[in-house]
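Exercise 7. Given the encoded structure of a 409-residue chain, write a plausible sequence.
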């Protein structure tokens, strides 16, 4: 479908032309028409499929089609995002699309001046793009009210679930009018997200974009290794590679710091982003990675969600992703536009259950490799040996995960 076929305001059509958009993506084709009719949408689609326009265009068209009845200019559209980067990115897209209108957008997120955000909110806005935690702060300060709210978007819902935002979301949405249009987008639809949709939506239209297979141009490999040797193996693997643009995922902020420190000892051009970094530092790291100043970017999964960078040649999973779908999303950041890419995953013995789930979803086994000349027999140092209490806790956790996976199979 061409954007010119959509029944949207001429100001939005002009903005779409300004941005160079001509044809809709699959998720836009399926989601925008029913959303323009006022229907709720529950969309399952990965990053990079065009979700932003899929929810922004219907939301903005609603505002233009139904002018505000009140002069108070309280927010009529709220978009919830899991990370600062996404809040900034989506607010920027909203401003571009409203360039030919009088609609106002404000981004509300942690790590930025709450005083400035307060001033913007009190001056009056139409669209608020926010992370749940900072929006809760503004609600407690009585800087934002939902009397006029008509349109809600929950974007990257599964990521907000993973980050522990579900109680905040319930509280926020519980303060909003029941009569509203709600669009929910998630890369995966676990049971908790289905429950969220049932609670917050009215007979939503389901929009699903296939995400179960990575591009065939990605060369995948698993490298089994003991936990205490992961950093050493990573460094040894990198010595065999000619890296142009590499993204390394870690599960925790501490691991991201450790990996970054070790890499910087042997090479230049390494940047890192995670939740403890200020917004300025995260933006600077991303811009440096995009421009080629940094060849390697180390990131936690949370910080890198929504990261859109062209030309990534290698993706390394320092940790196996917790969910099979996240494996697809991570490695899919390489091999864009039919280019070839390499995806390497370091696998410790505790990760085998997760690997089996990934391979079950893919429908094939991923090739296992070892690095020639690497000493895999170095004994575990005493400081890295888990205590009996830790072993018991991990065993309980593994059993609980296994029970959950069996119930979902």
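Solution.
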């Amino acid at each position: 479908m061409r954007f010119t076929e959509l029944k949207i305001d001429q100001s939005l059509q002009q903005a779409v032309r300004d941005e160079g958009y001509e044809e809709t993506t699959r998720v836009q084709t399926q989601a925008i028409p029913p959303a323009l009719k006022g229907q709720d949408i529950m969309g399952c689609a990965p990053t990079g499929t065009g979700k932003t326009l899929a929810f922004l265009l219907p939301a903005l068209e609603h505002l233009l089609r139904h002018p505000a009845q009140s002069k108070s200019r309280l927010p009529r559209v709220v978009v919830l995002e899991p990370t600062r980067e996404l809040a900034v990115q989506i607010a920027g897209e909203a401003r571009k699309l409203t360039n030919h209108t009088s609609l106002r957008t404000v981004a509300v997120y942690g790590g930025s001046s709450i005083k400035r955000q307060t001033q913007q909110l009190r001056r009056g806005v139409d669209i608020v793009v926010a992370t749940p935690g900072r929006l809760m702060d503004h609600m407690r300060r009585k800087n934002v009210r939902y009397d006029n709210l008509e349109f809600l978007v929950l974007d990257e819902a599964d990521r907000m679930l993973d980050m522990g935002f579900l109680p905040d979301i319930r509280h926020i949405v519980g303060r909003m009018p029941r009569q509203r249009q709600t669009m929910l987008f998630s890369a995966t639809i676990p049971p908790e997200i289905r429950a969220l949709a049932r609670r917050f939506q009215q007979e939503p239209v389901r929009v699903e974009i296939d995400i179960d297979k990575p591009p065939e141009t990605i060369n995948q490999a698993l490298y089994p290794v003991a936990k205490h040797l992961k950093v050493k193996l990573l460094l040894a693997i990198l010595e065999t590679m000619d890296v142009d643009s590499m993204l390394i995922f870690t599960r925790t902020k501490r691991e991201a710091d450790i990996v970054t420190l070790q890499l910087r000892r042997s090479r230049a051009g390494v940047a890192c982003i995670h939740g403890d970094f200020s917004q300025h530092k995260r933006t600077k790291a991303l811009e440096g990675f995009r421009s080629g100043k940094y060849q390697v970017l180390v990131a936690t999964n949370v910080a890198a969600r929504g990261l859109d960078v062209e030309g990534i040649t290698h993706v390394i999973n320092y940790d196996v992703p917790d969910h099979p779908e996240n494996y697809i999303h991570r490695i899919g950041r390489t091999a864009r536009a039919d280019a070839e890419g390499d995806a390497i995953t370091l696998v410790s013995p505790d990760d085998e259950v997760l690997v089996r789930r990934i391979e079950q979803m893919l429908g094939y086994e991923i090739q296992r490799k070892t690095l020639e000349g690497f000493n895999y027999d170095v004994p575990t140092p005493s400081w890295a040996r888990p205590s009996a209490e830790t072993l018991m806790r991990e065993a309980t956790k593994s059993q609980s995960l296994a029970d959950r996976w069996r119930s979902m199979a």
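Remark. The radius of gyration is 22 Å. Students should compare their own answers with the one above.
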